[in-house]
Amino acid sequence: MFMSSMATHVFLISLYLLFYSHATAQCFKEAPKFYNSPNCPNINLHPTLTCSPHAVHVAMTLDVTYLRGSMAAILSVPQHSSCPENIIFHFVTAASKINSTTVLNRTLSTSFPYLKFQFYPFDDHSVAGFISTSIRSALDCPLNYARNYLANLLPPCVEKIVYLDSDLVLVDDIAKLAATPLSGDVVLAAPEYCNANFSSYFTPTFWSNPSLSLTFAGRRACYFNTGVMVIDLARWRDGDYTKKIEEWMELQKRMRIYELGSLPPFLLVFAGNIGPVDHRWNQHGLGGDNFHGLCRDLHPGPASLLHWSGKGKPWARLDANRPCPLDALWAPYDLLETRFALEA
After folding, report:
1. What CATH number was assigned to the domain covering residues 56-283?
2. Which residues contact 86 (CB under 8 A, 6 or more apart)?
3. Which GO terms describe its molecular function (predicted)?
4. pLDDT in tens, 185-214
5. Under 8 Å CB-to-CB from 297, ≥6 apart: which residues?
6. pLDDT at position 225
7. Closest CA to 312 of 284, 337, 339
């Protein structure tokens, strides 16, 4: 029996879509298991694993677009940890993409069967109303703003976390970063870069308005990168810092006081009052500038964390056979199955 031309057409489209979905699907290898050193405390002895005082908590956002980068970042954390079994990951995903979350969960469980992790759905539609367009459309993704809501999403017993972006790898023990002291009323810690042109992150409208520019009066405000932060969630909750950030985002919708995505609200609230972290924990900017993605070198000094912030991502440049020299440092953490491996 021959199918009608319409049925044939539909059948061929279905075959194409099936082939395309398989061709574009990302398959990842299983990561090795990493074991605690003999002197590591056993967090499994605590009645509630997540609430163990010996756990190191890491928060990340997860989506399909940056999954390849996220997988490499995740692998790098236990690989360089002295107590990898004491690390608990907290993954925030877009609540509007339930199917994607299912895929992400399955991928993580398959590639990291020994990893301790939890998923948290983030209401990306509700935050979309706060977002203003920026100089690069990728910065406007609602999930980029999920870091503002970690204190609301994670269990109350999680009082301190390390937040990490998806485009980085660690080459040192994350426990050292997690142990960063947050003295006094300091809410977060991050490497500061006081040589950067801080004023460029805000518009002339902001600086010409005395009631706004006085925000930084009495504060030695410096730029810091929000892709690597140590956050005291208990103090964040007590100070209702999510609301403070949202208030600046609401003002931005009315009079455009900054240009660059989710970073400026953090600067407005925290710059000049953050805990110090050595620059080795965020060798950032390796993705190049936000316009051209040009190659960059490491900053002077040692490196504990390599961060491909900026337009260019190492996996995209490697696939295009146009890598930057430092992309070779990311490649060993890439868990993506190559096409040759899949066909073997």
Report:
1. 3.90.550.10
2. 36, 40, 41, 43, 52, 54, 55, 56
3. glycosyltransferase activity
4. 999 999 999 998 999 999 999 999 999 999
5. 326
6. 94
7. 284
